[in-house]
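>> Question from a student workshop board

For tomorrow's exercise we were told to take the sequence and the ligand below, predict the bound structure, and bring the output to class. My setup keeps failing. Could a helper post the expected result so I can at least see what it should look like? The ligand is flavin mononucleotide.
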Amino acid sequence: MQIRDFKPKNQFFLAPMEAVNCTSFRILCLRRGAGLVYTDLIDADEFTQFAKETSVLDAIKKFVNPNSEDQPLAIQLAGAKIENLVFAIKELENYCEVFDFNVGCPLGKVLGKKAGCYLMKHPDNLYKIISEIRKTTNKPLSVKLRSGWDEKSINAVEVAVELEKLGVDTIILHARTKEQGYQKKSDWNLVKKLKSIVKIPVILSGDVFNSYDAKIAFEKTGCDAIIIGRGAKVNPSIFSQLKSFQKASKKDKVYCKNEVNPVKDFLEWLKLYRKIERRNNFSEIKDHALWTSTECKNNKEVKQSIVNSKGEEELIKIVKELKF
Ligand SMILES: Cc1cc2nc3c(=O)[nH]c(=O)nc-3n(C[C@H](O)[C@H](O)[C@H](O)COP(=O)(O)O)c2cc1C
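>> Workshop helper replied:
Here is what the output should look like for this input. Compare the format with yours to find the bug.
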């Protein structure tokens, strides 16, 4: 698996996730074995405006918060204003191995700017943007697509074919439409079809939660890599488990392996958070504790006690007592 001149050390990457992928979480996933980690969506307009109001360095700190351990890093951009995308790319080029362009975001704040999944509906706009991005940077470039806008207009394969012609180096396909949200399973048959048509690597996104899912995803689709979102959110150690995916069997559930220790993951993340992030946001820390507790015993009661906790000391005590 190679994306232009970038060779990841394995085929399992951390997917972009807004409000999850802070630098400290990305570093934790890299420590657990992720081959590449993605930032969450960076709005090129917001980045540009902030850089102009403060300074480029302040914008880079706010939106990426670079750290020497946070490599290899892919920076995901979204937007429709070419001048702002070009500005962001030029300023961020030295901070990542790969750029990704988001064509999947379903949120109103992004669609309203004619960006994200809006571009699946208006692919000519997308092609103009990608041509300009390609002229701006020689960095490896991935584009993250959805299947299409809705089930009547599934066009990911046609769009990907055009993107390949424009010099995009890899396609990430989250094979659900914007209208589907997370209903139904993602359509791995579409990933298989895409893989059979384009020559550039194809990265599968959607519904890989353990080693067995990964094994089946590779077998069924022939994809070149897998990018993991929700599975990593609740279990960053999924990347350690995935090392032995070829031997996985149906019995391999999320927490059944020795190398998985959600409590240790949370405490290590918290230590990184305190050292690296430029904020102390208790509700953000609580969110990570809630995700950590996803598969624990007495899940409902535990979640409530995490929500009710008043301070970090109390929260840490609850997490340390989690039983899986
Ligand atoms: C909390 C959350 C935030 C997300 N934020 C982004 C984002 O910023 N950019 C993006 O391209 N996809 C985003 N996604 C979609 C994921 O990258 C991924 O495509 C999707 O969740 C399917 O993969 P999974 O089944 O492994 O979670 C987000 C998903 C979640 C759960």
